[in-house]
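Notes from hallway chat w/ T.B., transcribed later so I don't forget. T.B. wanted the structure written out for a chain they're using in a teaching module, and asked if we could keep both sequence and structure tokens in one place. Agreed to drop them here.
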Amino acid sequence: MVPAELRRKHGIEAGTKVKFLEDQFGRIVLQPITEKYVDSVMGCLADDPDLLGKWENEHPQEGQHEP
């Protein structure tokens, strides 16, 4: 259970989704997926409109299936 003080501070309400991450020390970190979080990451990739093309160039073998 997340303590009430942290829930209030980070806008965590019943039903809020969380993302589980591991930091460089092996600790588990919970990132609440709130409107504030989504707003903060929204547009961070907008400068590179062809992300799929870039990914395909960097990973040419992935996604291909053998006949």
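Follow-up for T.B.: The chain is about 35% helix and 20% strand. Might be a good example for the class.
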